[in-house]
Amino acid sequence: MALIWKTELQGVHYEVRRAGRTLRLYANGVQHSEFHPKRLLTGSVWDLLWLPALLHEPSRFRRVLVLGLGGGSLIPPIRQLLNPETLVAVELDAAHLQVAREVFGMDAFGVETYEGDAQAWLQAYQGEPFDLIIEDLFAPSNQQVSRAVPADKAWLQCLADNLSASGTLVMNFGDWKEYRESPAATDEAMAGYASRFRLSCSDCHNAIIAFTREPARSIHLRRRVEATKSLSTRDARARLDYHIRQLD
């Protein structure tokens, strides 16, 4: 892979490498984002973060919040498949935000970006609730990817307080064990939610957990994937790697 961009910031070494037309962002050797100008699908964990929106009709997601933008892998599929009226992303890491804006070209997708601590940003937020919140907060300085914010009761409540009455919350955990040992796995965490799902893929250990305010079934997601032209082509079917299991 060809190195096309690099920088060092606060002891973290960042690189963007190109493989064909695919761009990949690394921090201390750990991949954090991927972008291809002609593909919505990465074939990896980033697809799992927006897929839960297809548990319901995409048109309901008028306000979308991404906590932990990285290089912006989620933004093109959110824009094309959901096309929300408001799309907001918060990113603490200045190098990641620079890559998203200047290398991956995320500004072209109509995303309103903020540089800052996503947890503090949401705790201070006083605006309208969001229909979809994707929480993907990981520490770039670690040699192994791990959550930067504990999924404790206070943080879960803050996320719930800023989610609309029919909204969906998606959270990224490093693996199934990290989720199972967190308050997010308890019955108490389901207060105010009707359904909970786990999404996973073959090339990573991450456990993506989706909470929906309204009842949902995994078959609805599968049917919407099949009915969506950009996700049902031969290339897309070969690239989309996911497993979904209802937890409640």
TrEMBL record:
| Record-linked Pfam families | Spermine_synth
Name the UniProt key words of this record, in alphabetical order: Polyamine biosynthesis
Gene3D superfamilies from the UniProt entry: Vaccinia Virus protein VP39
- SUPFAM superfamilies attached here? S-adenosyl-L-methionine-dependent methyltransferases
**InterPro entries associated with the record:** SAM-dependent_MTases_sf (IPR029063)
Name the chain's protein.
Spermidine synthase
According to its UniProt entry, this protein's organism is: Alcanivorax jadensis T9
